[in-house]
Design a protein that fits this description.
Helix content is 80%, strand content 0%. By secondary structure, it is mainly alpha-helical.
Length: 158
Amino acid sequence: MPLIISVSMIVVAVLSIANRNAGVEPVERIPSRIAEIFAYIATFILGIYGGFFSGGYITLLTAAYIMLFRMTFVQAIATTKFINIFSSLSATLIFMTQGVINYKLGAILGLTMFIGGIIGGSISLSLSNLWLQRIYLSVVSLLAFITLRKSLQSNESN
């Protein structure tokens, strides 16, 4: 799975670089019906993956919304944050029923993430879409490299 995610992130980075204006400037054209369908399918598949691992699925979902729904970076980030609530809540409820959550640690880390989210959301709103694109591409490239390296190392040890 890490290999698939890292390759997907590399593809996202390449497509984002190839289409430099995607997500930077608002697009007046309405996405095609096929693009919308693919966006819904991507949301469903990445929701399943997010229930398993969480790692990287919002990053890929952000890219899908920029490319398929023709959103700006701010719109895509805001939308994925909102829908992440539902994905996380449903997975959390399943894990709660199985009794595998460390509630004390979860509360501490949840509060930390809440504060980080406030800071990150405020920063996102103060930056231009161009800067958000640059930061996004840097983070996606770094995460893809790290994930790919770890995936290749674990394959070598097996």
